[in-house]
Write a structure and sequence with these properties.
alpha/beta, four-stranded mixed β-sheet, globular
Length: 151
């Protein structure tokens, strides 16, 4: 039925600032940057995965009414929209250290989890991005893990 997921929307408040962050700090590349008159179609991808793009979209018409867009922007800035993306790596600690040196704000430092090693940062708009170095074989989830995740 379907072949692939090719584009996922990441809501941002300013597309130029998003480019500075995603391309300048994270190393994504611009795939398409098209002024469509009623909106700017801006997609990026990782150089290692060009077939999977993120659409950096400002909440607003035509996809959303202005009233709904204002609500989405409010939720976005509060960090209430959840995880925007999970990026995988072979070395989570190195990615963490590199991005921290570039001024990226981490909400979770590097932690060993049953599924691997990961950390979490926020983009300038409030989106959560998780970086995961997958374990060779996932470990069994313990009661301690569940308690830690519940906070």
């Amino acid at each position: 039925m379907f072949n692939a997921i090719t584009i996922t929307t990441v809501r941002v408040l300013d597309q130029d600032e998003a480019l500075d962050f995603y391309v300048g700090k994270l190393g994504f590349q611009v795939d398409e940057d098209v002024d469509m008159g009623f909106m700017r179609w801006l997609t990026i991808s990782l150089p290692s995965d060009p077939g999977r793009q993120l659409l950096l979209e400002v909440p607003g018409p035509p996809a959303l009414s202005e009233e709904t867009a204002a609500q989405v922007r409010d939720l976005l800035t509060k960090g209430a929209l959840g995880t925007a993306a999970i990026l995988t790596t072979d070395d989570c600690r190195a990615v963490h250290d590199t991005l921290k040196a570039r001024g990226v704000e981490f909400t979770q430092d590097v932690e060993v989890q049953p599924y691997g090693t990961d950390c979490v940062f926020r983009d300038p708009f409030g989106n959560h991005i998780r970086v995961t170095q997958m374990a060779e074989q996932p470990a069994e989830i313990t009661e301690d893990d569940i308690a830690r995740w519940r906070g």
